[in-house]
Amino acid sequence: MKGEPDFLQNLRDEMRGGRQWLDRVLVIVYAVLAGLAVVGFTLLSDVAIDLYGRMRSGWWWAPLVWTPALTALIVWTIRRWAPGAVGSGVPQVLTALAPETPLSERLRFVSLKLSVAKVLGVSGGLLAGLSVGRQGPSVQVAAGVMLHARRWLSPASGISDRELLVAGGAAGIAAAFNTPLGGIVFAIEELSRRLQDRSSGLMLAAIVVAGLVSVSAFGNLSYFGRVRADAVSWWALLAPGALVALACGLLGGLLSRLMLASFTGLPDRFCAYRRKRPVSFAALCGFAVAVIAVVSDGAAVGVGHAHTKLLLDQVADSGAAHQPLVFTGLKFVASWLSAWAGVPGGVFGPSLSLGAGVGADVAWLLNSPHGAALIALGMCGFLAAITQTPITAMIIVMEMTDGHNMVLSLMACALLASLVSRMVSRPLYSTMSLLMMRSLRDRSDVGSRPEPIGR
């Protein structure tokens, strides 16, 4: 039939395109480098968390001095040398992806230099004992590595900066959580709502390669193990699951709103002091987080992975001791103050920990025998509430916990929590990106010296 593909001719064309194959190899090489960057980031973060834990266990009072001092140093260093590395990193990638952002300004938001600064800044925040995560920042780290491939690709490669950024950001999530499907959905739902065939193939290749690097380093294991909820019916979780979703939606929306207010600055004396003395303000936030660390014995600071895994491993089996409402409240405040301080750090990890706390609180309040399942629902609900990307949250938590038997429950929880969150706050990442672009336009109009992006 006329118009059908000619296999032999297409094969000859492919074999003759030597430069095209070289460009493909370069993309794969940079995907490997992106995966290695996230693996190195993970290892460095784990070392920082371990060092902080040893210091805190050796001298209970040490965080009261160490945390504010290191927080102030990080904020001063980042504001001076790499202002684009402040915050989560996802809004920066969204800003770089925006068609309104001039090509000459993209390196202010995503670059190899900022990737290095992000790794060091987030690791420093974890060493300080702040409540920050590394998963969101992994998006900016991997995107910066992938974007660096542009200087080696030929003009005829047909691979745009946008495609490299989407592929890198998706690969960052996939490698950070060891959830390749979650990386794909995150790219579609958050980074790019319309993907061309070519960019889809590029993204998949980057995710597969970066995921293989992560699996080679850490093994093909679920992030939080398996949720032992095989005997739980959907109806048994209906009432407590709805309560978890509502609570996560309200708290996640509130945290998102507070972070946006911290980002934009309000006409109050606290924000005025932050604008005038950002380093001193960071030290005060660090001291408050240190007090929370002392009160909670370190449980409410850091990424929260250890506490979440402890809840998943023990609550359903032995009813392990959990401080109802206390941990969730302290973790909430610590996460907000850590973001307000202006250090590099994400909200994915703390959101999962907060959601786990909400799930455990509901299980305690209702005396439910399905603690592990409610904790998984809480993780999904809070992540969906803070990011307002319910499909991504459901897929990530399902892959992290090996909770395929809870697909319907996770989906319903994510949708409800996201809906409630939208009634409380605007979307966190996209709103921050819009504010960054507005600030960029204002500086271009005025022609003034660029200010730190993370203000």
Helix content: over 70%
Main sheet overview: none
Q: Helical stretch count?
A: 19
Q: What general outline do the C-alpha atoms trace? A: globular
* N-C termini distance: 61 Å
CATH homology-level superfamily of the largest domain: Clc chloride channel
**Strand content bin:** under 5%
- The SSE order reads HHHHHHHHHHHHHHHHHHH
DSSP strand tally: 0
Report low-confidence residues grouped into runs of 5 or more: 194-198, 448-455
CATH topology of the largest domain: Clc chloride channel
Integer-rounded radius of gyration: 22 Å
Structural class: mainly alpha
The residue-averaged pLDDT reads: 83
Question: What is the second-level CATH architecture of the largest domain?
Answer: Orthogonal Bundle
CATH class of the largest domain: Mainly Alpha
**Number of structurally distinct domains:** 2
Please describe the topology of this protein.
Elements: H1 7-16, H2 18-58, H3 62-81, H4 90-97, H5 112-128, H6 135-147, H7 161-177, H8 180-191, H9 197-218, H10 238-264, H11 269-276, H12 278-295, H13 305-318, H14 326-341, H15 348-366, H16 371-387, H17 390-401, H18 407-424, H19 428-446
Helix pairs in contact: 2-5, 2-6, 2-7, 2-9, 3-5, 3-12, 4-7, 4-19, 5-6, 6-7, 7-8, 7-9, 8-9, 8-17, 10-14, 10-15, 10-16, 10-18, 10-19, 11-12, 12-14, 13-15, 13-16, 14-15, 15-16, 16-17, 16-18, 17-18
